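Protein modeling request. Please complete all fields; requests missing the sequence field cannot be processed.
Requester role: graduate student
Desired output: 3D structure, C-alpha cell encoding
Chains: 1
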Amino acid sequence: MTLDPRALAPALAAAEEAGWMVVRLDLDGVRSKAELMRRCGEALRLPEHFGANWDALADCLIDLSWLPAASGRLLAVTSWGGYAQARPGDWETFQDVLEQAVDFWRNSTEGALTVLLADPGDRPRPKPGPPPRRS
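Delivered output (135 residues):
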C-alpha cells in the first residue's frame, strides 16, 4: 500500500495508541542492496545473525521473536522512491519479501504486521491541461 506522507503521522500515532510497535524505515539516499539491508538491520533491530540477504530478511520478518511483544507491528517505509528507481528489480524483490511477511502474520494469532509505503514522490501529479486558447 502506498500512503500519502501527510497521512503518515496520524497512522503512526493511531498504531502506537493501539499498542502496536511502530518501526520507521527511512530509505532516503539508499541506492544499493547492501545499504538497504543495513538500514533494515538498524531500523528493525535485526538479530546479529542477520545475513543481509533476501532470504535472511524474509526469515527475520516471519520470526520476529527478537522484538518485544506487541499486539501488532507497523513498518512504515519512507522515502523509497529513489531506491525503487535506482534498483527496480531489487525494489520488486523487497516488496515481495514484505508482502510475504504480511501474509504470514495475517494468519497468526500472535499479532499482525502491517507495512505502509510512504514517499513524497508518490503524490499524483496534476495532468497538464489543454494549451491556452488564443483569441
